[in-house]
Amino acid sequence: MIIPVIWLLYASANDIWYVFLDNWFMSVTMVFGSFIAGASSEGGGAVAFPVMTLIFNIPPDIARNFGLAIQSIGMTAASYLILIKGIKVEYKYLWFVSLGGIFGMVLGSLYIAPLVPAAYAKMLFVSFWLSFGVVLFYVNEIYRRKTIDELPQFNWPERLVIIFIGIIGGSISSLLGSGLDIFSFSYVTMRYHLSEKVATPTSVIVMAFNSIVGFFLHAVIIKDFGQAELNYWLVCIPVVVIGAPVGAYFINRRTRGFIARFLYLVILVQFVGALFIIKPGEALLYFSIAAFAFGMIVFFGFAWLSKKIKFLR
Fold first, then answer.
1. Cα dist. 179→5, 86, 87, 113, 218 in Å?
2. CB under 8 Å to 96, separation ≥6 — which residues?
3. Whole-angstrom distance between the N-terminal and C-terminal Cα of the chain?
4. Confidence at residue 118, expressed as pLDDT on a 0 to 100 scale
5. Per-domain residue ranges of the chain
6. Mean pLDDT along residues 137-152
7. Could you give the CA distance from residue 252 to residue 3 in angstroms, rounded to a whole number?
8. In whole angstroms, what is the distance from residue 167 CA to residue 55 CA?
9. Which of the two residues, 312 and 113, has the higher pLDDT score?
């Protein structure tokens, strides 16, 4: 691929090898982050954000900027592999949720992200997605839902709903560096019972595009992409261009049940790690409970819609 060649030429011409001495821990982090980015509906930022903010105490805005930047490389590489290997992708919602994601990313970056305190952003991230993990576990392991591999043809009211889902997901991504992928994933898997095996590679492509938009926004328009993010980005590029495609290839060869259980594990580890590291006080704990409860309402609501509303053809 052309990205490793460009990176190698840049690294050699600018003699940036010293950057690895101070930032090697990010390369190690993204070995796991990039694999999960390609193998699940949570982007590399879903690993990078909690690790950077919870373990290394890096400010959330830097973690978010880095997450968007590195996903624009890693998840694009994974998307390339998905497309050339002919892995099944559901385009019926991909374009509309991506369109909404652009608006959500711009809206959130300019007007929402500056207002959210760091600790609250961290706990919002893990609490909201924990609720999705619980709901997904219920409908898969207890309710034993049936799944489909292809969505119906949508009419315009449903397309507008999907665009709105994209706006919300893009706004979440503007705060945390990822979110559009798993939020849209949750909607189509809960609302339409789309198989995780199809929704996962689709979510990778959705987040790759949204990350490119977010990276451009922060680097060119807002201009808050600093030296710290740049250094982290440089030491992780050669890792993610391999790790993310490997993750996508690995998960495509697994069953739907394995994919779902892999996602439960990732979400649970994130939440437990946050509790041990942040040790939230009373106010933050109540906020986390509220975020979890709100997520339960949202995701169970998606599942309820699947029984109450027939497919819109």
1. 30, 25, 22, 14, 17
2. 154, 159, 162, 163, 166
3. 40
4. 63
5. 2-308
6. 85
7. 23
8. 30
9. 113
Q: Rounded mean pLDDT of 124-135?
A: 85
Indicate the pLDDT class of residue 312, thresholds 50, 70 and 90: very low
Nearest CA among 144, 126, 142, 138 for reference residue 42: 126
pLDDT of residue 269: 79
Alpha-carbon separation of residue 101 from 48, 212, 230 (angstroms): 21, 11, 24
CA distance 30 to 37: 9
The average pLDDT across 113-134 equals 80
Give 152-192 as a 3 state SS string: CCCCHHHHHHHHHHHHHHHHHHHHHCCCHHHHHHHHHHHHC
Q: What is the pTM of this model?
A: 0.86
Taking only the tens place, the pLDDT of each residue in 272-285 is: 877 877 777 888 89
pLDDT digits (tens, 9 = 90+) for 5-25: 888 888 888 888 889 888 998
- Amino acid letter, residue 313: R
